Amino acid sequence: MAQEIERKYLLKDGSWRDAVTESRRMTQGYLTTLSGGARASVRVRVSGDAAFLNIKSMTLGVSRDEFEYPIPVADAQHMLDHLCSGAVIDKWRHYVRFGGLLWEIDEFLGANAGLVVAEVELSSEDQAITLPDWAGAEVSDDPRYYNVSLVEHPYAQWKDV
Amino acid sequence: MAQEIERKYLLKDGSWRDAVTESRRMTQGYLTTLSGGARASVRVRVSGDAAFLNIKSMTLGVSRDEFEYPIPVADAQHMLDHLCSGAVIDKWRHYVRFGGLLWEIDEFLGANAGLVVAEVELSSEDQAITLPDWAGAEVSDDPRYYNVSLVEHPYAQWKDV
């Protein structure tokens, strides 16, 4: 088991784009639902010619238990098409190195178009980090930004709330 | 992806025990819940020194889509202890060969003690089968007998319904 310790930020502007070193298109969905009281999320992700099952504890905040297993792309595609709940999330993940850390910037498409979120993985909860100029408000503790939330309450509907 | 085509029966009596060729203790739980409207169940099972993640469509009846992946036992045990919803199912699975088919007879323990169910896997929905004398009423279409149901509504509570 890995422990995922992650901080999540909104973006102030588009200046991060100049620093991108790699971008990957990702499609993902969830076999679990938010409303059923499950203690973990089960994610299916296809990224290029690879696919993964990912299981994470649903605890809110910076640290979560995490397991990840590679699976055949055809299996994952069937799950996305037939077994996942809610909408499928479609996004570009951009990679930016800053201050000795790898930042992952998710630029959402489809029902979540307009939403851009930067994540950085840490080795401990109290690790000091230097924030890039383009990092805005921290949203690590806001459940709306969980990808598992975005399949049920996509960004396009947030205006209605 | 495999397609699971399975018929499930209650047991008339204990005469099947004489025909058992192998028995395995199994502990399993679910990362999905029944109430959340998920379209698939995600099961974690530990059986001896092996463990598996299993994903099945939640369609009712004889045929279901099924995926299964081996995972480390330590991962599965952590999921059973911390991430599964509801109770963990503990059972003996007994194997009996009859009429050219392999029957799996689940004898439940703990909160489901007293429940014994026989399952037989078929290669098509209309495959003719010869029922053993000990096979009782068919319950393939009764959702109460789904293992994913038994974690939330264990057999010990059925009397109350």
TrEMBL record, chains A, B:
Alphabetical list of Gene3D superfamilies matching this protein: Hypothetical Protein Pfu-838710-001
Pfam families assigned to the protein according to its UniProt record, in alphabetical order: CYTH
Domain CYTH: 2-152
Signal peptide residues on this chain, from the entry's feature table: none
Superkingdom assignment: Bacteria
Transmembrane domains' residue ranges: none
Active site per UniProt: 30
Descriptive protein name: Adenylate cyclase
